[in-house]
Task: structure prediction
Amino acid sequence: MALFESTSKQLVKDTGRSSLHPIVDLNSASQCKIMCIIEKKKSRWFWRPTKYLPTPFTLNELMTKPIDVSKKIKTSEFVSNYSNQPTLHVSGKLGGKIAKELGIDVSTADSFVVKMDLGSINKSEIRWQDLNDALKDQTLKLDHEFVQAILNCRRRSLCIVFETLNTTKDTNIQSDIQVEGDAVASTDIISKASVNISGSIKDTHHHSFDIPNGTVMAYGCYGLKLLEGLGLIELDVDKKLKDVVTDATDGKPPDAFSMDQPDGPDTALTSAFNALMKSPHKGDIIKCFREILATPEYCHVIEQLLDNVCDYFDKEKVKSYSLDEVKSLFGSCNSWERLLTILGITFDSKKGGKMIYPEDDKKDVVLSCCGLATSLHGLTNLQNIALKDVTPEYCDQLLYLIRNAICGKNTPADDPRLKRIYTHSSNPGKSFLLALGFQLTKQNGKDILALPPDLECPLEDAYVAVFVMAS
Result:
């Protein structure tokens, strides 16, 4: 439900609170109330954000003895009559999702406005000291399956919700989609989003949903520290988790994508992808990925499988896949089986097609391929389709232009490296820039290449994908 996601993200953005996490899915809102457990999972990759994942557990369900802090929870009005009208771009991941939900033809629209009106928003919270006092000498159930899974993974840890932003009345998101481009749209009633699109197409779409009273729109959480062997828990000394929230479930660690060095992150990326770059099978592997990008909706499947194999190498709990199950996951996607074979991932025909994990000598190249798949999954389908045709001749120029954008710098239209790629004629490099949302515009009377200021573009993932696919 992309409209709900856009609403919660905008609310968090407007608070200016980097420690707040928006709710990505209305169905998970009930798992983000005070005293609910959140799983913090650090990424394997330095350019990717830390994930904060709702779980079905409350703290009391994991403790040997429940605690009652209900009288310590205070509620107050956070903001009255909250409303906003953010502009979303179809080239952005969230804007693209909404466009797909509403059936907007992205070839006729550049951006659209979503009208949201949540009314008054309340804040509920428990003070750090009150929660810390309540946890004194308390222990977790060390034999609980979920607790065991957390203990056995270095990248996973527990957090507890201490603060929430909640709706105070039954609310309906009024999605007045006003499309900028060749299409226009309007909404005529509150209970439904009635979208009339004109341009190269003409159709009417209806989309609406209600947000019940008391729905959690955003939450803040404290880290929990577990003293192994004893099961004792305490709040992290750092108190609030201060990651910069960049996604509904993500918070980026500080200096995750450093541009301090002359070559930006290239040295770190060369190290991270060394096994793939020097592999005698690099050409075949990249070819497989290009063919997979012809059906980009399956990028998340290859990431899911390779991440599972990386968990196997890390001696973590893994999912046991069968050949039939993997085939059903990939559907009409091509080249996935050849890629897995190159990486040493096979299936045992004598054991119901059970997946056979690769030998340890394949670990580094599998890890590199998993990193690439992760970045490809971070791009939109349109961006991946454009990336498929990007060849090495466009690599340096694209990395230069994307690096400028990451640093917040616009590129003058007369820059030689821009002129080589951003010509009047169509080419794969230019198509990829357009898919990312880059536009030629004017600043102080001069032509520049820039991203729209309100566009959420996965620049780090784009940089990594070009660096690996087109090097």
About this structure: The two ends are 37 Å apart (CA to CA).
